[in-house]
Amino acid sequence: MQDYTDLGYGRFDRGLASTTAQRGTLLGKVLGLLAFAFVFTCFGVAIGSRLGPGSYLIGVIGSLVLVFALMALREKSPINLILLYAFATFEGLLIGPLLDAFLAQGMGNIVLNAAAGTAGITAVAGMYGYTTKRDLSGIGGILFVGLIGIIITSLIGLFLHLPALYVIISMAVVAVFSGFIVYDMNRLARTKFATEGDAIMFAVGLYLDMVNIFVALLQLLSIFGGGGGGGRRSDW
Known about the structure:
This protein is an all-alpha fold. It has one domain. The protein has helices at residues 6-51, 54-72, 79-104, 108-131, 139-160, 163-190, 196-224. Helix 1 (6-51) packs across helix 3, helix 4 (108-131) packs across helix 7 (196-224) and helix 5 (139-160) runs antiparallel to helix 6 (163-190). The N and C termini lie far apart (57 Å).
């Protein structure tokens, strides 16, 4: 028979409360890091708009170097935060010329709709991943295979220049990276103990998920809106 003594029940209750508090604290840290990262991205977009198309190459190289440096120095404070926000700034340099191309063609509404769509997808996918009781760690391998397929198809698309193929790729990107948001948020919810470096890498993963969805939605909306995908940029 179960013995619900004060001592036994009290220990269980404190343990449950501690785990719940830990999850809530980690989620708060990750969301806070994401919010600040996007502020720096906006700063990078402003700089990229002034530099012109040349900022794209700077953004690509800078983002790659910084994300690898961040992986290596994730637990070194405060350099880890400096690297995170520098990475987000270089991502802004990368996105800046793309957004300028849309605005120059009078398609600012597409940019706003893509941003709203990204926010909606992130909220729904993130909420499901975080609140579900299921362990979704098994979908990680499936999503990775899907990502490899997208990369290969995108390389093929560089030579074929088929609008229909761009549509398929963009839809696949939205689907796969929405899946990654579910997967990342599920891992976050199931993490009992996390360091500052872990929180930063969670933020980086979710940041990249959102950026890729945003760019894919820009592509889709520009094609279906008659833009033909002229401002296309591949971030995958």
